[in-house]
Amino acid sequence: MTVKTLPAILSVLAVIAGGLIASAFADFGPLSFHMATHIAAMNVVAPLLAVLVMGLGAPHSFSSRYWLWIGAGAQLLLLVAWHMPPLHHLLASSTVTSAIVGSVMMLAALSFWLALLALLAQAEAAPWQAMLALMLNAKVACLLGGILVFAPHYVYAMVSHHAAMAPLDDQQLAGLLMLAVCPLSYVVAGIAVAAQMMARLEREAATPATMPQAGTVAR
């Protein structure tokens, strides 16, 4: 692990901690369990794979800021599409299609985290773009989670429900997971990126500028 991969590591630790706390106090239903698996794939497995790829040496071309926004856009587009009731009902009705969509979403998340870490590994990188991409993901996750929590009726049609949990309660728990754990992942990573940027600026400010020695004649 390098300093540049620290935002992803801290993000994963935050998600794991949040997941453990949630699982200790909640009994998951079908929808909330499905949400937990998606969070684990996109916010634990994907960033860890990105750290592994960075350790093996990511391609230099992948460090472009364009890859960062392509990865962020693909991840957000898939996330919003998956939570649209008609598409969700169509794709979640089959175990095969649900698994395919989950795999594609994890690959989109992997491309985002890999592009983020590859960009941060460049000395001339612009950290503000990484922070903006992370905050955008956090905002969209908050919006989608809030819709599930505050919807007055059940949004998605599930084949089966937990015997001890009402469908609306299951949906609200799924929304709470998304509202709390997903933004936590991106916010923690963004704070880590900001802290690294501030530390770098402080080091640069503390380094005295190189001055020509007295008596030296410029040629």
Walk me through what this model shows.
By secondary structure, this protein is mainly α. 74% of the residues lie in helices and 0% in strands. The protein has seven helices and no strands. The chain has helices at residues 6-25, 30-56, 65-82, 85-92, 95-120, 127-150, 167-206. Helix 3 (65-82) packs parallel to helix 6. The longest helix is centred in the last third of the chain and has 40 residues, at 167-206. The termini are far apart.
Layout of secondary structure:
Blueprint (H helix, E strand, L loop, with lengths): L5 H20 L4 H27 L8 H18 L2 H8 L2 H26 L6 H24 L16 H40 L13
Helix pairs in contact: 1-2, 1-7, 2-5, 2-7, 3-5, 3-6, 6-7
Count every beta strand, where a strand is a DSSP E run of 2 or more residues.
0
Let me know the largest β-sheet. none
Shape: elongated
Task: Please give the alpha-carbon distance between the first and last residues.
Answer: 46 Å
Q: Any key phrases for this structure?
A:
single chain; 219 residues; mainly alpha; 74% helix; 0% strand
Brief write-up:
By secondary structure, the chain is mainly alpha-helical.
